[in-house]
Specification:
six-stranded mixed β-sheet; Rossmann fold; Tyrosyl-Transfer RNA Synthetase; two-stranded antiparallel ribbon; alpha/beta; 48% helix
C-alpha cells in the first residue's frame, strides 16, 4: 500500500511521528490525506497530476479530503475577486468531481470541505492569532513566495495566506478524524516547511507533506490556473482549441517530452510501454502520440464541459 501512496512523488517531508521506515506500520491504522486548491483561475490539465495521486490514495484505502480554499482565494486578491469566489467554488467542485469520475475514482470515499467551513470558527481564529504572534512579516512573505502573487506593497491577506494554509492541516478532518498528510505541488514546499518549523510553537503537530512534480505549459513555463497565457490546456477548451494546443506542444522524434509524460500517467502500463517503445524507435512520430493524447483528453473534457456549461460564464465572465 505504501508503494501506491508514494509513487510518482517528487519529495516527502516526514513529521516527528512518522518517517519512511515506520510508514508501512502507520498504514495499518486508518490514514487520511487532504489536497487543497484555491478557486482562482480555470482548472487545467496540470491538475491531472494531483488527481491521479488522489486516485492512488483512494485505491490504497485512504480517507481523502478535497479542500476548496475559498477564503484563500479572497485573500490572494491579485488572482480573483470576492464577488466571483462563490461561483468559482461551485465550478471547481463540479470540474474536480467530473474529472475524477472520468478517471474511474470512486468519489463516495472523498469528502469535499470549504475553507469557510473551518476558518471562520473561534478555535481557528484563536490559533491564527497565536501563529501570527510567533511569525515575522519576513518569514510569512517568504513562505508564500512560490504560491501567492507577490507585489511591492502586498495586502495583509497575502501575508496571512501561508499561515492559514499551515493551520488548515491542523483543523481539517475526514469524517471526524484528523488528517495525517497533505498533498501539494513542489511549489508549496516553502509553506510546508513553514508548517513544519512553526506549528509546534503554538502546540500543534504538522502533517506529513507529499509533493507531486509540477507540469509545464506547452510554452515551457509553469502551468498555473491563475496564469492568463493562452497556452495552458483547460478542461473546458473546445475540441478545436484542445487540438490546436496539443499540436503546439513541443515534441521532437525519439526524444522524451511532456506528451509522453501525460500519456504515461493516463494509459495502462503495458499499453504505454508499447507506444513509447515505438516512439523512441521511430516507428511512430509526434503526430501519432499527439493524436493519442487528444483522444484521451477529449474523452475527459467532453464530460467536464457538459457538467459545467451553465457555471462557466458566471465563474469566468468575459
Amino acid at each position: 500500500m505504501s508503494e501506491l501512496i508514494l509513487r510518482n512523488l517528487e519529495e516527502v517531508l516526514w513529521n516527528n511521528k512518522v518517517d519512511e521506515k515506520s510508514f508501512e506500520e502507520r498504514l495499518k491504522s486508518p490514514f487520511n490525506i487532504y489536497w487543497g486548491t484555491a478557486p482562482t483561475g480555470q482548472i487545467h490539465i496540470g491538475y491531472l497530476v494531483p488527481f491521479l495521486k488522489i486516485k492512488d490514495f483512494v485505491n490504497a484505502g485512504c480517507g481523502v479530503v478535497i479542500f476548496i480554499a475559498d477564503v484563500h482565494a479572497e485573500l490572494d486578491a491579485l488572482k480573483t475577486s470576492p464577488d466571483l469566489v462563490t461561483f468559482r467554488t461551485e465550478y471547481y467542485i463540479m470540474v474536480i468531481k467530473s474529472v475524477l469520475q472520468s478517471l474511474g475514482v470512486n468519489i463516495d470515499n472523498i469528502v469535499f470541505t470549504l475553507g469557510s467551513d473551518i476558518q471562520n470558527t473561534p478555535e481557528y481564529t484563536k490559533a491564527l492569532y497565536h501563529l501570527m504572534a510567533k511569525t515575522s512579516e519576513h518569514n510569512a512573505k517568504k513562505a508564500g513566495t512560490d504560491v501567492v502573487k507577490q507585489s511591492k506593497n502586498p495586502s495583509i491577506g497575502s501575508v496571512i495566506y501561508p499561515l492559514m494554509q499551515a493551520l488548515d492541516e491542523v483543523f481539517l478532518t475526514y469524517k471526524g478524524a484528523p488528517v495525517d498528510a497533505q498533498l501539494g505541488g513542489v511549489d508549496q514546499r516553502k509553506i510546508f516547511t513553514f508548517a513544519k518549523d512553526n506549528l509546534d510553537k503554538i502546540g500543534k503537530n504538522e502533517c506529513i507533506h507529499f509533493m507531486n512534480p509540477m507540469v509545464t505549459s506547452p510554452d515551457g513555463n509553469k502551468m498555473s490556473a491563475s496564469d492568463e497565457r493562452q497556452t495552458k490546456i483547460l478542461f473546458t477548451d473546445t475540441d478545436d482549441v484542445l487540438q490546436r494546443k496539443i499540436n503546439k506542444m513541443f515534441c521532437v522524434p525519439k526524444q522524451d517530452n511532456q506528451i509522453l509524460h501525460f500519456l504515461k500517467m493516463l494509459m495502462l502500463s503495458e499499453e504505454y510501454e508499447v507506444l513509447s517503445t515505438d516512439f523512441f524507435n521511430d516507428i511512430i512520430g509526434p503526430k501519432e502520440i499527439k493524436s493519442k493524447l487528444y483522444t484521451i483528453l477529449n474523452s475527459i473534457t467532453t464530460i467536464v464541459k457538459s457538467n459545467v456549461s451553465e457555471l462557466i460564464s458566471k465563474a469566468y465572465p468575459q
